[in-house]
């Protein structure tokens, strides 16, 4: 009888645990390293929101440290996290790749995750947004809405996949469109981004894609003041002006952090380079401006759904 009761109790535990995103009965602990602050517009704040999602959705204890940029600062932060019982650490940016590469063997019991790198190890993963397609659809919209037939991209780096996607989408929509592409060589060089914007405006550009998370808001504010159009970046930026922001190319960092942490806590996570796109629910387009014709919105949404199903952009169908 005792054996039967034990079996029934074990089955009950398994049933009650089914679908619960935890690795074991212990409360998970997660850390976040930020190169700037949680109040940084777009990137920093979105990372912090992701940490809070992990806390609320997965019942995790969470910790974060701001302005962690040097190897010594990262090592000190990791050591402090380890003392607190943290086992999963997110480095919120590509700059953490080289640092985790140097430090990961010193912390074999911890797992590290960062963005947009090529280095991985038994306890290190690189997350990558497959942002080519989101740029493609943004480019289609920009080309459609330009009255001067001149559109501009103000990006941080030439390796950003969304930039090439934007160019291809714009050319698909309007083969004779004139596209001006410039780079700041920094995510946060607001002064240079605004200078590029003024130069583009003087050349007749009337739709812009400011693809830099730390400078795109002030650029969009300038675009709004001058009466032009913009495509938002990273988050839904329609709140900056519905008549200005035609739509936004969204990378849902919070949803991705929650998704990865849930996989980790259920034991379904394997380290390596992991890529995410529209099909994974972490990339999307934001709210459309009323300036965009309704029939064109329908066309774009149909193209996105087809891309989710087939993995093919309109130019490859």
Keywords:
signal; single chain; Rossmann fold; disordered N terminus; alpha/beta; six-stranded mixed beta sheet; membrane
Q: Can I get a quick summary?
A:
The chain is an alpha/beta fold. It has helices spanning 2-17, 43-58, 71-83, 96-103, 132-145, 161-173, 190-202, 216-226, 253-265, 294-310, and strands at residues 29-33, 61-65, 88-91, 111-115, 124-129, 150-155, 178-183, 207-211, 229-234, 245-251, 273-276, 283-285.
CATH class of the largest domain: Alpha Beta
Number of domains: 2
Number of DSSP strand runs = 12
- The share of residues in extended strands comes to 15-25%
For the largest beta-sheet, the strand count, sense and barrel status come to:
6 strands, parallel
State the CATH superfamily name of the largest domain. Answer: Response regulator
Distance between termini? 65 Å
**Mind telling me the C-alpha Rg?**
22 Å
Question: What letter string, H or E per element, gives the SSE order?
Answer: HEHEHEHEEHEHEHEHEEHEEH
Cross-sheet strand order for the largest sheet? 2-1-3-4-5-11
Determine the fraction of residues in helical runs and give it as a percent range.
40-55%
Estimated structural class: alpha/beta
Secondary structure tally, helices = 10
Cα shape: globular
Membrane topology: Lipid-anchor
Subcellular location: Cell membrane
Family: Belongs to the BMP lipoprotein family.
Protein name: BMP family ABC transporter substrate-binding protein
């Amino acid at each position: 009888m005792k054996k039967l009761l034990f079996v029934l109790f074990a089955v009950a535990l398994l049933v009650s645990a089914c679908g619960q995103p935890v690795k074991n009965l212990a409360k998970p602990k997660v850390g976040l390293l930020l190169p700037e602050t949680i109040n940084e517009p777009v990137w920093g704040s979105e990372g912090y929101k992701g940490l809070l999602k992990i806390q609320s959705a997965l019942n995790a204890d969470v910790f974060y440290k701001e302005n962690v940029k040097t190897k010594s600062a990262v090592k000190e932060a990791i050591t402090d996290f380890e003392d607190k019982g943290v086992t999963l650490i997110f480095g919120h940016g590509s700059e953490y790749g080289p640092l985790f590469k140097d430090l990961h063997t010193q912390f074999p019991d911890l797992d590290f995750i960062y963005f947009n790198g090529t280095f991985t190890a038994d306890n290190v993963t690189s997350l990558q947004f497959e942002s080519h397609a989101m740029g493609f659809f943004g480019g289609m919209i920009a080309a459609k809405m330009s009255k001067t037939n001149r559109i501009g991209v103000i990006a941080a780096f030439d390796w950003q996949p969304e930039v090439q996607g934007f160019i291809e989408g714009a050319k698909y929509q309007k083969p004779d469109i004139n596209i001006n592409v410039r780079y700041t060589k920094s995510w946060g060089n607001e002064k240079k981004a605004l200078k590029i914007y003024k130069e583009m405006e003087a050349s007749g550009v009337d739709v812009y894609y400011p693809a830099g998370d730390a400078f795109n808001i002030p650029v969009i504010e300038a675009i709004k003041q001058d009466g032009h159009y913009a495509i938002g970046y990273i988050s839904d930026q329609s709140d900056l002006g519905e008549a200005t922001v035609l739509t936004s190319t969204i990378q849902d960092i919070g949803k991705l952090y929650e998704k990865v942490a849930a996989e980790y806590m259920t034991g379904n996570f394997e380290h390596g380079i992991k890529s995410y796109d529209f099909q994974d629910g972490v990339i999307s387009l934001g709210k459309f401006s009323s300036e965009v014709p309704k029939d064109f919105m329908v066309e774009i949404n149909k193209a996105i759904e087809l891309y989710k199903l087939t993995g093919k952009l309109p130019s490859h169908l």
